[in-house]
Amino acid sequence: MGIAVSVIVPICNVERYLGECLASLAAQKLKDIEVICLDDGSTDGSGALLDRLAPSIGNAVVVHKPNSGYGATMNQGLGLAQGEYVGILESDDFASPALYRDCYRTAKRHDLDMVRTNYSEYCAGRLQRIGNYSGYRYHRVFDPVTCPDIMGAAPSIWAGLYRRSMLEDQGIRFVESPGASFQDTGFSYKTWIAARRVMLLRSGYVRYRVDNADSSVKSLAKVFALCEEHRSVDAFLATQPPERARIFARALQQARFGNYCWNYNRIAEKERPAFIAAIADEFRQADAAGILDGAAFRPGNRVVMEDLLSLEPGEFCARYGELSWER
User: What digits encode the pLDDT tens for the residues 124-147?
Assistant: First the structure.
């Protein structure tokens, strides 16, 4: 029997959490899986711990390599994957034993390109289920082009499965920017755009750790990383059928706006004018292309967008000490 699911686990200096992650993979109820563990140049004890625990998983592939960043590491994992479907588990998170069994059964039963699930935030031993897809219908097959605003949900690329042939045929890969710089953003949007048959599961199988002080999402570095992710999505859209690309392009402007507001609030004040100048130019280009629909923005967001397009960067930053946006 072939491999049903390849699970890619990127690892870098997570010795404190890695054991719990690997134990959750060893306990998976779906047995026809391979677990591809990529040690991205860890300088703590992660590599040694991986070597000691990997045999307990069963079909584990262990790679130790020089540090190359999250995107390059994930792409190496995708290149090694042999499964019919691909899953991702971050090495500071852990999963319910039923995760890959339930997702794979659902994918096979309905011939899906992608399965996405809710997840639970894990902090100090407590779980809180996150209804990432509240407002959307669960357990039905749909094409994301019929509800493109679903891309505004949190990326959570590790909560689900992807048909590997879809990733290959569509050329979906991670942006190989240095470090860990929101590469999940571009990958998530590209898979929503590419998939024609998707199902959402209500259960929250993945325990997403929010008490890791070293998590890359908390880094204040790489001011323009999100811009690079969105540019990669723009390039991907250009490969899609024109009408499909147009629908997603319009929806992506609102997702882009929310991401950029979040980024503006977290970066240093001295970096803000350059960031505002760059994103204002992006939105002006979108406006010129006819894909920036101001009427689709909520009133508060529309005001900020109008100021973004009309004010000089320094004036905009002086007016907005912090950006809030209406979801």
Answer: 777 777 788 988 999 999 999 999
312's tokens: 């000089």
Strand partners, 87: 7
How far is C-alpha 102 from the geometric centre of its chain's CA atoms? 21
HEC states along 266-321? Answer: HCCHHHHHHHHHHHHHHHHHHHHCCCCCHHHCCHHHHHHHHHHHHCCHHHHHHHCC
Distance of CA 52 to the CA centre of its chain: 29
Residue 160 backbone zone (phi > 0: left; psi -120 to 50: alpha; other: beta): left
Q: 295 is written with which tokens?
A: 């009427």
The alpha carbon dihedral of 150, 220, 37, 79 has a sign of positive
CA distance 286 to 152: 18
Same-domain check for residues 46 and 179: yes
Nearest residue to 27 via CA among 56, 60, 62, 5 = 56
- How far apart CA 146 and CA 148 sit, in angstroms, is 6
> Is the same domain home to 209 and 247?
no
pTM of the model: 0.93
Q: Are residues 176 and 251 in the same domain?
A: no
Q: What phi and psi, each to the nearest 5 degrees, are found at residue 53?
A: -95, -25
pLDDT digit string, tens, across residues 280-306: 999 999 999 999 988 888 899 999 999
Residues of the domain holding 82: 5-218
Residue 124, classed as helix, strand or coil, is coil
Separation CA 34–CA 31 (nearest Å): 9
